[in-house]
Write a structure and sequence with these properties.
The chain is α/β, with parallel strands linked by helices. The protein is 30% helix and 20% strand.
Length: 242
């Protein structure tokens, strides 16, 4: 079963594009006039000023796309349903860690895109911040190493600091709002939690609730509370295709 057919029914409730991250993604796409959005989901971060071809493997996610966005093609990164060199750029937002065959997906990107590929991803060598203390193994072994993207061409990597009031509820979005991680409905829309051992999640949530109740979390992580944004491992990777 496709993961997001299982966990994605309420995705739109907590996963709304953050305009600051959206601006960074749009800038990274540069002069591209057309883009394939791989793992397009409900359409977050799709630029409205470009011709977008969304590709998504989950019918549950496709049904949540607003009518104002282009309809998505059912397909996977490893078998993109597009002709060769049919778009200027490829975009993957928090999607590459779900690809079963990343070399195959990269080959497909090179086949269909003419100019560049843009990825919003997490660096597996970086930290999710204090979340790692409560939910060890949250990143698993799924996120691609940044060096892997060099298969596509010349690569630049930029940190994407996450605002304290981020509107998109991905894994570390609530780094300054720890109470959010006690809400099962919030965690349900994060694939990292869905794939983590249920006992680890339950134990971490219990410890977090206790530490919030006695205020030890705030004493331990007081430095976070003064920050307007934090680097919790998210990166914008741009590959100029060669």
């Amino acid at each position: 079963m496709i993961l997001y057919d299982k966990i994605g029914a309420g995705y739109a409730g907590t996963r709304r594009a953050d305009p600051r991250i959206a601006g960074a993604i749009r800038a990274a796409l540069g002069d591209a006039a057309s883009v394939v959005n791989i793992g397009a989901g409900s359409g977050s971060y799709e630029p409205t000023d470009l011709r977008v071809v969304p590709v998504e493997p989950s019918e549950t996610m496709i049904r949540q796309r607003p009518a104002s966005l282009p309809p998505a093609l059912l397909g996977t990164a490893e078998q993109l349903p597009l002709p060769a060199k049919s778009v200027d750029a490829a975009l993957a937002v928090l999607a590459a860690h779900h690809w079963r065959d990343r070399p195959g997906a990269f080959a497909e990107i090179r086949r269909v895109a003419r100019k560049r590929a843009v990825f919003f991803t997490h660096d597996p060598d970086a930290s999710f911040g204090w979340l790692d203390d409560y939910f060890p193994g949250l990143a698993g072994e799924r996120y691609p190493r940044l060096a892997e993207f060099a298969e596509l061409g010349s690569v630049t990597v930029e940190p994407v600091p996450i605002p304290a009031d981020c509107t998109d509820g991905f894994t570390a979005a609530y780094w300054r709002r720890p109470e959010a991680y006690l809400d099962e409905a919030v965690r349900a829309n994060m694939s990292t939690f869905a794939l983590l051992d249920a006992r680890v999640v339950a134990d971490g949530a219990t410890r977090l609730a206790s530490d919030l109740a006695d205020r030890s979390w705030r004493r331990r992580y007081a430095s976070f509370l003064a920050l307007p944004e934090a680097d919790v491992g998210y990166r914008l990777v741009v590959a100029e295709l060669t």
